[in-house]
Amino acid sequence: MTDVGVVLSGGGARGAYEAGVLSYVFGDLARAHPLVRLALVSGSSVGAINGAFLASMAADPSEGIGRLEQTWANLELPHLLRFGVRQAAGLHRVLLGGAKPVGFFDARPLARVVGQQIPWKLLRRNIRTGVLRALIVSATDVSTGRPTIFVDRAPGVRVPGGLAPMARVRREHIGPHHVLASAAIPMIFPPVRVGPNLYCDGGLRLNTPMAPAIHLGVGKLFVVGVSSPIHSSHLPALGPGRYPGASFLLGKIMNAFLLDHLNSDLDELARINNYLEDGTASYGAGFIDRINQQSAKRGEPPRQIVRSLSVRPTVDLGRIASDHLRRNRARFGRVLGRAFLRLLDVGEGADADLASYLLFDGDFARRLMDLGRADARALTPEILEFLTPNAPI
User: What is the structure's pLDDT at 233?
Assistant: First the structure.
């Protein structure tokens, strides 16, 4: 049986889509069909939050996945994105720096959600007893800009090596501060200190952390992304004669940083698989073993064919955010204020990418979870073939 790892992308409030996918696969589907036990979970940014939830439920995800759904459904935007007198008075420090890390919003409500809703004792037990081989969380070192990969591993599991030269691997008992560091969107939330260093959003450098999972030896990756394939969005974002403002551009910049790496990562994985398959077809079944002998001399991890299956939104989440803002303009304006609403609702195009990262709102989350469940349900045959015991490699 081939080990399976789950990889979860970052994307702020778009993470509700991941919760919907996980709910269908490890809830509805797992209760009807036997699925393989997960070997590891790897996540970045909001994918680290969802990943920690999933890792804590690794012994029986179908029994606990509802807690993740409920956490998303209960979010209240004014409570999570708190902006009061204290934050207004400290805005100059967001731009100029200071003695304490700050962001536009108070991170304490998010810290309470992460600290109280994720069953950390269960996570610790799952790692200690080997129910889960590893939990991987990526973050970005503020001082150097280097990606840092926190690895919480079961006894006897090796630390992944052979990653990109700039990547730093740290063995840690992952807790709330690691996850909050991975999810700290720059300027939106303050960076988080882990040990001597400050860290921010892992999605800036490693938004879909597939490589660490591969280097830990899994043969299959179940990947959940929060960006639509390029070809799925055919409508123009801006109407004729309209030009983008700062909010519109910021949303597109965040897309470029946080979302647009998955296609290239999957293409690179397919390229390596093709190389190994062509070599085996040309030189026989021992081809991979022979090249691994040479790799071992350089201290590199062994190569193997790694299969992947990805679930991604069939509808652009920025467009869902734009529609959600229009439908709830009065409610958001009343509880958040007109200035914040103008920041979210760019009003310049059909989508609201910036809002899709910041709408930590239960109603918006339910829409994304419904889409995640529907998209995963449409792939039921492929998922069962991929995740059932003794499924073909």
Answer: 47
**Cβ contacts of residue 175 below 8 Å, gap of 6+?**
120
pLDDT at 301: 76
Pair of tokens at residue 372: 């995640």
Residue 223 carries which side chain, given as an amino acid letter?
V
What b/e readout covers 181-209, taking b as 16+ CB neighbours within 10 angstroms?
bbbbbbebbbbbebeebbbbbbbbbbbbb
Confidence of residue 302 (pLDDT cuts 50, 70, 90): confident
pLDDT at 386 over 90: yes
Alpha-carbon distance of 250 to 236, in angstroms, equals 17
How many angstroms separate the Cα of 263 from the Cα of each of 170, 171, 207, 270, 285? Answer: 27, 29, 12, 11, 30
* Residues 24, 387 contacting (CB under 8 angstroms): no
**4-8/220-224 β-pairing:** parallel
DSSP 308-358: EEEE--SS-HHHHHHHHHHHTHHHHHHHH-HHHHHHH---SBS--HHHHHH
Query: What's CA 149's distance to the chain center, in Å?
Result: 14
Dihedral sign computed on CA atoms, order 82, 88, 89, 94 = positive
pLDDT digits (tens, 9 = 90+) for 40-88: 999 999 999 999 999 999 998 888 899 999 999 999 887 777 655 565 5
The torsion region of residue 243 among left (phi > 0), alpha (psi -120 to 50) and beta comes to beta
Q: How far apart are CA 371 and CA 173, in angstroms?
A: 34
- Counted residue by residue, the chain has a size of 393
Joined together, the tokens standing for residue 350 give 């059909």
- Report how far residue 350's alpha carbon sits from residue 332's, in angstroms, rounded to the nearest whole number: 19
pLDDT at res. 114: 93
Helix, strand, or coil here: 88?
helix
Strand partners, 309: 222
Per-residue pLDDT tens over the stretch 137-164:
999 999 998 999 999 999 999 887 767 6
Q: Are 2 and 220 in contact (CB under 8 A)?
A: yes
CA angle 25, 31, 37 (to 5 degrees): 65
Residue 326: is its pLDDT beyond 70? yes
The two three-digit tokens of residue 186, written as one number: 């720059």
Tokens of 361: 């709102």
